Amino acid sequence: MKKMYLHNQARNAARRTIFEGKSFGSSSGKGAVRIVPLGGSGNVTKNMYVYEYRYDGKIRDILIVDCGIGFPDAEMFGVDLIIPDVRYLMDKKDKIRALVFTHGHDDHIGGLPYIYPKLGKVPMYGPTLAAAFANLKLKETPIRDRVRPMRFDSVVEAGAFRVSFIRLTHSIPDTSHLVIETPVGIFYHGSDFKFDPTPLDDKPSEIGKINAVGKRGVLCMLSDSLGSERPGFTPSEQIIGETIEKELRLSHGKVLFTTQSSNISRIQLAIELAQKHGRKIAFLGRSIDKNVEESVKLRYMKFPRDVIINDRDLKRMPANKQFLVVAGAQGQPSSNLSRIANDAHKMIKLNDTDTVIISADPIPGRENDVNKLIDQIYRHGARVSYSDIMEDLHVSGHGSSGDMMLLLSAVGPKYVWPIGGTYKHLMQYRRLAEDLGYNKRSVIIPEDGEVMEFTEHAPPRVVDRVTLEHIMIDGLGIGDVGNVVLRDRQTIALEGIVVVVVPIEEATGRMTSAPEIITRGFVYVKGSQQLLARAADVVSHALTLKKGRIIDWQYVRKRIEESLKEYLLKETGRSPLIVPVILEV
Amino acid sequence: MKKMYLHNQARNAARRTIFEGKSFGSSSGKGAVRIVPLGGSGNVTKNMYVYEYRYDGKIRDILIVDCGIGFPDAEMFGVDLIIPDVRYLMDKKDKIRALVFTHGHDDHIGGLPYIYPKLGKVPMYGPTLAAAFANLKLKETPIRDRVRPMRFDSVVEAGAFRVSFIRLTHSIPDTSHLVIETPVGIFYHGSDFKFDPTPLDDKPSEIGKINAVGKRGVLCMLSDSLGSERPGFTPSEQIIGETIEKELRLSHGKVLFTTQSSNISRIQLAIELAQKHGRKIAFLGRSIDKNVEESVKLRYMKFPRDVIINDRDLKRMPANKQFLVVAGAQGQPSSNLSRIANDAHKMIKLNDTDTVIISADPIPGRENDVNKLIDQIYRHGARVSYSDIMEDLHVSGHGSSGDMMLLLSAVGPKYVWPIGGTYKHLMQYRRLAEDLGYNKRSVIIPEDGEVMEFTEHAPPRVVDRVTLEHIMIDGLGIGDVGNVVLRDRQTIALEGIVVVVVPIEEATGRMTSAPEIITRGFVYVKGSQQLLARAADVVSHALTLKKGRIIDWQYVRKRIEESLKEYLLKETGRSPLIVPVILEV
């Protein structure tokens, strides 16, 4: 049995990294690495990957990469957010050696407050800013453990796994790819990235390190695939500055600027330009406030304190001196920007001299909300700058096909596994890989829950399927909105609900009066009195067919449901949710 | 008072059209034309425009252009489709002289079966294919009137209005712009179009007629604006053929082809190419069947009958000889293509040798559904060709900014009114018009319900606002799902419903037993028994505070609602719809 190393920071600092060419040591024909995607394979968010080292069929060590939140589909009515389903890990908690984060976006760190308590005390690591943003979330909970910030030249030892960091550019500083050495081979965990030659924070991707690991031979690379449909390379963040400046020159009123609240480099850039044009800056949105504060503390952002003004000063400031950094770039209904656009913000009103700069692309599934937001802003007569009309605002944080092919060429893995895209992005990534000479079988496309096993000599294959549910967060509840509740919500949303209260005398088992029918979301009640009266008759009739005492409640419920369902479908073409209530009186 | 002409086809044929330069005759300083957009201004579908000629403040004549259906927003739960709200016309029916259609798309003709009965017997006109498709819809109803097919050189006289047709290219043959002469000036009704120099039906846009009317002087042009965000010109339909051929050459299995079911030229093209590659064709989808049948009858489509096969023959055909024209290009959940993609089609199963060609762009608001459809198809291993990755399938039926600027230059109206786009498209159209030298005030942007008045000498202005509701069609009901029903559906969809049944003894006005609490879509009931028991206590407690007989039911309902709402919000963070039911026993 291999000796397990738990993390030891002092030792790590001294340890040579893989880029110095040290080989990992002996491997064994009986060893295997399994990767279990709990989120992020076949979809964009909710990223969480479980790496398992097995020997002789037994799990020795588990490494977890990322722990993000997801956003609900349009059909997940009322659900605020989704977290990965970690039931698979519940009987393996003692094998978890580390949780490593790639970067500080919510779809990679946001699940931590909900999931960490379920995992037990796991050592957590991440690049400095990712660790800081994750810890901001932990501080709001009773959890006292923290994510340890890691330099890009440090290493995490986690049992049989050795994890090193490579800096990549993305839309948040300190984004990392992970090199995961195992007894079976090297894995390259290449989540969200682009190759920005001139990033705003002056810290370009460490391409030398990528080439070095490529030369050593990588068994499998997991690669961001979201931008695989776009030709060429994603442009540098720098050009966004020119667009913002142009808007600042044109604007005679307030300028509102929105981007992801974690994109602090872009916020820093906007602040610098606003300042240059003589404007004062206000932040509207709790997430922006918190992220900026933390980033200033860690010196990831820098600006004179007096360019920032508070709410009271903002009111006294002429419109053409205001620059508002506003949360809500994805058109989230409760965000500051949505409230401003819909005249529901307590402080900010839009008018036709104002300009709104939306410096973010809609994530898949949110296009409709973002387009509605743009329309609402336009209705105030304000100028809107957004990616469909301003090519240079259209700077994705994700690479395009060129970036992806460059990474794939540099790493040159035996197998490649596109992640972080919807299925069409994965398939398009496969076409790109085929253009680079990969055959179809070398591009593996498992989806969440499909357990891939890698051994030294056989090709990887799906060895198991883990059943995953959407763990939905609605209000204060975690997971109590399950499939049953959701299915009811969906039925009612589409067809309405009909509640039938049947009062039954306890002693005799007979109806004491006519059934009461209450509907919501079904028909306009005032215009449908006749329909509802007849529906009550249908129920009465169905129940009197059953002579004498009513004792079999199950049967009664079913009869009510069936008779009413048939009647209402015939009359209205709708199938509402029918809820029979037998009330013993 | 002007003499009213009702349509007379024989007379029309003889009548000279405006392109011969005949002036319309005397106008009057007291005359005015009002345009009331009932649908299509500030949105893309549900097109319906009311033109009113007024003299001395009194309505003399009404001309209606188009009568389309709209598609529900994501929040309009359960609504199948929307039709324009025509209550405005109800006290003016005797003034309606004609209803003229521009082309045969559902968002221009589809409202007819629902709305025609409300208008009275109005003469209806449309280009040949538009009339044919509209009449297909009327044939399914008891309505016996029909739309009269018009040649492009004919004229409709409708009271003070004289309407001529100009052929334009679009994604359906026989698309027309209307020249509407009035005593106040000439209006150019330029709905959906693009300039396709090589259309599939060999009938290009009549640019000469456009220039001619421009020379006479147009007061106001209404113009399609949907493609205003795209640079350059929309490519010709011809290039789609090359893409289809390429897919046919690559495919070893079935080929499925989908486009709008009214785009019969594109369907004709696909059939010809499929035939050339030795495949047989089957149609899957009732709308395609009907449209193709009608088009063949009218000789808008032509192919040997034996290339079309029925279901039974299809089963015996090897996969690589099958070419299926399938309905459902917008990802509609109940369409044939969606059912095939989701393994719910009785006859067609997808596998990894198949190819699916999606030759249509998602209409605004349907992007998410189309993307999900693509993902589902890919999951079968099939090839998918769609616009984001195949530039040459991306041939919109709507012009791009170049097409729009060309039309605007040729017509050169005094005022221009962008239509058929969401607000952001209208604003972008305004930018284009400004580039052509129009000032901001000449580009008018009313939205649905805003009544624009045009007179000879004063600039147009909004003189009235008509309140419009979404008339929603759900199942068999027209309009009975109104705002109340919809708001209930929305609340329940997001938060669930809680029904509280309180049994009260009729004689004494006292509760006979504890309140019964039934929830749906709220919490997982089995895991929430304690919560629900305590909720019942809260209700009991709230009611016992009111001593003695309960007689004021309104008050009781309110108390139940308030106490329960507060309790549930505190415990769960949710605000379900609370329905108190007082049951007298």
Low-confidence blocks of residues of chain A: 1-28
CATH fold group of the largest domain in chain A: Metallo-beta-lactamase, Chain A
Biggest β-sheet: strands ordered side by side in the sheet of chain A: 7-6-5-3-2-1-19-20
Rg of Cα set of chain A: 28 Å
Largest two-chain interface: A-B, 68 and 68 residues
* Count of distinct strands of chain A: 25
Count of the domains of chain A: 3
Under CATH at level 1, the class of the largest domain in chain A stands as Alpha Beta
Return the structural class of chain A.
Answer: alpha/beta
Termini separation of chain A comes to 69 Å
Percent of residues in helices of chain A? 25-40%
Largest sheet of chain A: 8 strands, mixed
CATH superfamily of the largest domain in chain A: Ribonuclease Z/Hydroxyacylglutathione hydrolase-like
Percent of residues of chain A in beta strands?
Answer: 15-25%
Average pLDDT across residues of chain A? 87
Proper CATH architecture of the largest domain in chain A: 4-Layer Sandwich
Tell me the quaternary state. Answer: homodimer
Overall 3D geometry of chain A?
Answer: globular
Provide a count of the helices of chain A.
16
